[in-house]
Design a protein that fits this description.
This protein has three helices and two strands, in the order ααββα. The protein has a two-stranded antiparallel sheet with strand order 1-2.
Length: about 55
């Protein structure tokens, strides 16, 4: 998934995704200068945050 994809998936702005990336709050990999996200890892990340209510 791209930044645009994950922002739409999570219903947040691209800026929010960049902030989360800046603070290592969201699982991602940077490939050839572009951020990429795996839906499975995003879903697992969401599930882990549900327990603590922290995003």
């Amino acid at each position: 998934m791209t930044i645009e994809d994950v922002a739409a998936y999570l219903q947040v702005t691209r800026r929010t995704i960049y902030e989360w990336l800046k603070h290592n709050k969201i699982p991602a990999v940077k490939l050839i200068g572009q951020w990429r996200f795996k839906r499975e890892r995003i879903d697992a990340w969401i599930d882990s945050r549900k327990e603590t209510h922290v995003f």
